[in-house]
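Sanity check

After download, print the first record. It should look like this:
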Amino acid sequence: MTEKQNFFAVDLGATSGRTIIGTLENGKFSLEELTRFDNNLIETCGHFYWDIFALYNEVVKGLRLAAQKGIAITSIGIDTWGVDFVVIGEDGAPLRNPIAYRDPHTVRRMEEYFEKVVDKKKVYDITGIQFMNFNSLFQLYAMRCNNDSALAQARRVLFVPDALSYMLTGVEVCEYTIASTSQLLDPRTGDLDEGLLESVGLKRSQFGKMVQPGTVIGALTPEVQRATGLGAVPVVAVAGHDTASAVAAVPAADAHFAYLSSGTWSLMGIETPNAIINDLSYARNFTNEGGIEGTTRFLKNICGMWLYERCRKEWTDAPTSHGLLQAEAMKVTPFQSLIDPDAPCFANPASMVDAIQQYCRDTDQHVPEGYAEICRCIFDSLALRYRQVFGWLREMADYPLDVLHIIGGGSLNEYLDQFTANSCGVKVLAGPQEGTAIGNVMLQAKASGAVGDVWEMRRIIAQSVQLKEFLPQDADKWAEAYKRYLEVTARA
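Expected structure tokens:
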């Protein structure tokens, strides 16, 4: 492969978005950020909304800039956060901005749904998806209960990346990985479950055709061509869920790996040929989300750097540099204060510092004081939580896990990378940081025929990025700390 190709990737998160050019040439790739913009919530009329038109406009601006720079674009792909959706009316227009998953209209609706509509265990047996009250199923139920006027007039329901692709092409699809976040999809059939749809007053015909990552959706409409100065560039359904794109970019040598997508959230899991849905996965609240090439991402959400990020906003005396702050934390005695990062008290407290200190008081531990002790508490605890989840993955995987790949922004945290290797007792490979954008680009490359399959994608990625290796150390100390972690979290 020698021909140079440029792919336009749109990577949207819940706070910001980017447009990126990914260039593939001579078996290697490079990324160039074109634009970066805020993704702002709109609070009005009693709800929180995403501004889908502003996001569309930012995509068009990025495409226009690419045209002005004379960049020949092979294709376009969009990935976003999960679960949220846009309702389309009979005339083909969005009926309203989409309600955001952070909207409180789903509070207590999940429990009500299980009590009045479909049993909790049955929902898990169908979908294999972990329970979060903002999953699309419970959003739709809340909207029905509230007599939502847009939903009542819905001709189509399109998940956010599919909605933006529709606005660019006029073609309505339902991309598999983003659909799998909804708690409406049965991974065994590979399609939305009609019984669950019926439970919220919807039909399968109200969703687009199910497509797999790497499918060409259609070309830019004439109006988008006029607005951007581009021609009929194809739009590709990449792995629309940002985590699915990130996992596609794991530079693994073979299938015997686990991954940790590390950022505000940590997502630890494995790639499997089939969903794992049983009593144990239900009890441990594991999720089965769609992957590429027919795989399943069997994973668990862990509260990641959210703890650290929230505390940094409160610390007034801490160094502004991550490196200096974390270096001070490394001078602190290890394991003197441990927390369960996923305890409900850390979900969204008024003060994260106070919440951590109160947890330690309640569990009869040393109460950390100052930024260094609290930072060390967070890092120690995250690494031990990773050990717990990694152990569960080893129990449920039908192959040995030889390496843990850490991807995403959190892979730059070398202290936590080393702690994770120590705690889990496995080799850790950290990188790439830009996993989501790379996965988006590579799936477009696959659609164009520039790469053959996921393993060729991963070989190219491994050749193009510099990974850092961390080997386990201090096994006895970490084993003893894990025993104490289990004792502490059991009595919390």
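If your output differs, re-run the checksum step. Summary of this record's structure: The mean pLDDT is 96.
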